[in-house]
Amino acid sequence: MAQRQDEFLSRGGRVFGLSADTAPMNTAIVEKLSLPFPVLSDPDRSEAITPLGFADEKDPRQISRPGTVIIDTNGEVAFSTTGRDYADRPNEDTLLEALEGLGLPATTQTPPELGESQPGEKAMAYEGLPHYFRGAKFAVMALRGRHRDLSEEFTDDTKRYLQMVERYLEALPAVEERRT
Amino acid sequence: MATDFTVVDNAGEPWTLSDHLDAAAVITFHRGDF
């Protein structure tokens, strides 16, 4: 979403990340990916994650499910999508289409302030991300080939996942550029 | 019903949704520890 921030801004939407991580963990993510928007923290999930329906009740770590909500200028939820798991994230094109439907004027967004930075214990170093995405891509390609007769739903699911990983891989050069 | 909430931004400062609604807010939720 960072790579396409201008497209969100031109349609009148500012992008924000949000998780149950602490502010220092989120600053570490902003630094790692050189994000042009802030990442917000709802550690006990009581303010935004649970009220907006994103609490992951199956995971014992008290985390958020992946997803995106678009709040219009009246404070109303104009669009909401929730991923089934960590491998199921919304397509930016879908979000941009929903945002465009609000008919808002273009806006701007100032870069995020950085605070104390402390990566989480399991956080992956930036240098590991390309290998991680490529490994995920080839593993899913292999499983897709192995089980291509399983069901249409499985084939469609793997296709969407591969498209998502491709988008992430395509975004890496821009991340690299922002980091330098 | 209008949604509003106050969380903390990554700099540790309070962040209230209604203070930012001169534009739409596209809020993407993450599992974290990434």
Quick gist of this model?
The complex is a heterodimer of chains A (180) and B (34). By secondary structure, chain A is α+β, with helices and mostly antiparallel strands.
Write up this protein.
The complex is a heterodimer of chains A (180) and B (34). By secondary structure, chain A is of the alpha+beta class. Chain A has two domains: 1-121, Glutaredoxin (3-Layer(aba) Sandwich); 124-180. Chain A has five helices and four strands, in the order H-E-H-E-E-E-H-H-H. A two-stranded parallel ribbon of chain A has the order 1-2. Chain A has a two-stranded antiparallel sheet with strand order 3-4. In chain A, helix 4 runs antiparallel to helix 5 (152-179). The longest helix of chain A is centred in the last third of the chain and has 28 residues, at 152-179. Chain A starts with a helix and ends with a helix. The mean pLDDT of chain A is 91. Chain B has 34 residues and is mostly beta strands. Chain B has one domain. Chain B is 0% helix and 35% strand. Chain B has strands at residues 6-8, 14-16, 24-29. In chain B, a hairpin with a 5-residue loop joins strand 1 and strand 2 (14-16). Chain B starts with 5 loop residues before the first strand and ends in a 5-residue tail after the last strand. The mean pLDDT of chain B is 93. At the A-B interface, strand 1, helix 2, strand 2 and strand 3 of A face strand 1 and strand 3 of B.
Strand arrangement within the widest β-sheet of chain A reads 1-2
CATH architecture assignment name of the largest domain in chain A = 3-Layer(aba) Sandwich
Helix content of chain B: under 10%
Bulk shape of chain B: globular
Q: Proportion of β residues of chain A?
A: 5-15%
- List SSEs of chain A in N-to-C order: HEHEEEHHH
**What is the number of domains of chain A?**
2
| Oligomerization state | heterodimer
Largest beta sheet of chain A, briefly?
A: 2 strands, parallel
Structural class of chain B: mainly beta
- Number of helix segments of chain B? 0
Mean pLDDT of chain B: 93
Q: How would you sum up the major sheet of chain B?
A: 2 strands, antiparallel
> Considering the protein shown, what is the CATH homologous superfamily of the largest domain in chain A?
Glutaredoxin
- What is the topology, as strand order, of the major beta sheet of chain B? 1-2
